[in-house]
Amino acid sequence: MSDIRPLVAGNWKMNGLAASISEALAIADGANSKRANADVMLCPPATLIAPMVAAVGGDIIIGGQDCHRAASGAHTGDVSAEMLADAGARAVIVGHSERRSDHGELSADVAAKAKAALRAGLTAIICVGETAGERAAGLTLKAIERQLMASIPNAGVDASNTVIAYEPVWAIGTGLTPTADDVAEVHGFMRAYLSQDDARRQMRLLYGGSVKPSNAAELMAIANVNGALVGGASLKADDFLGIIEVYA
Ligand code: PEP
């Protein structure tokens, strides 16, 4: 049994209005009563960070979904890591495949954002994952290695401030998941890669991509999987709690 404390993080993407705070309350209540042996995090849209921190920040970790590399300045529409921290966030997702595809973010941008997260005292959740084409071409591990090398900042990174999420692009929001062997192969590869540096050896490695209550136990039991990054199934308390329950 690994001594790495698991993390179950929910990514609400561009979903959620003020009324959705009730769902976060139900998640926090449920996670408390299940005494989950895991950290629980919700990453709502930026508009809900402060109210969600006020409502449930004492029970679960609240994080952002992206940040700008700069602390402030002329970047209309963007939010800095410092602003997320000021709103009460304790973490931020960077390099999600939807940011990479919708906004053309490259791994160098992701590294700069992760660096900004650390500068602001936030935990960086750095996402990596292969496309369907890369997997079909047998290039999964090459793609993951390339993204890890270029997306993780060179300095200041350790297991206390950085989490890696493996999210196969083709598994996000599709209902498809890799086989347990495929997840084990990628997570084993990531663990070996990170273990080249003692400070990174114990980093939490999350699996993300169509995690739901019915497949969570199998996915979370795979070696070197230290929790989940959950999209769609984190929007409803019953579904998200069904995943958290794996660690109860
Ligand atoms: C995600 O957005 O990070 C994700 C994994 O989405 P889903 O769980 O809906 O596949």
What's this, in brief?
The chain is α/β, with parallel strands linked by helices and 248 residues long. 38% of the residues lie in helices and 15% in strands. β2, α2 and β3 form a beta-alpha-beta unit.
Q: In words, what does this structure look like?
A:
With 248 residues, this protein is α/β, with parallel strands linked by helices. It contains ten helices and eight strands. α2 links the parallel β2 and β3. α1 (21-34) runs parallel beside α2, α5 (107-119) crosses α7 and α9 runs parallel beside α10 (237-244). Phosphoenolpyruvate is lined by residues 11, 13, 167, 172-173, 208-211, 229-233. Residues 11, 13, 167, 172-173, 208-211, 229-233 line the site of phosphoenolpyruvate.
Head-to-tail CA distance between termini: 15 Å
Distinct compounds present = phosphoenolpyruvate
Radius of gyration: 17 Å
Derived from helix and strand composition plus strand pairing, the structural class reads alpha/beta
Largest sheet entry: 8 strands, parallel, barrel
Number of helices: 10
Strand content: 15-25%
The strand order across the widest sheet is 1-2-3-4-5-6-7-8
H/E series: EHEHEHEHHEHHEHEHEH
Lay out the secondary structure.
Elements: E1 7-11, H1 21-34, E2 39-43, H2 49-56, E3 61-64, H3 81-86, E4 91-94, H4 97-102, H5 107-119, E5 123-128, H6 132-136, H7 140-151, E6 162-166, H8 180-194, E7 204-208, H9 213-220, E8 227-230, H10 237-244
Bound molecules: phosphoenolpyruvate (PEP).
List keywords for this structure.
248 residues; alpha/beta; eight-stranded parallel beta barrel; 10 helices; 38% helix; binds phosphoenolpyruvate
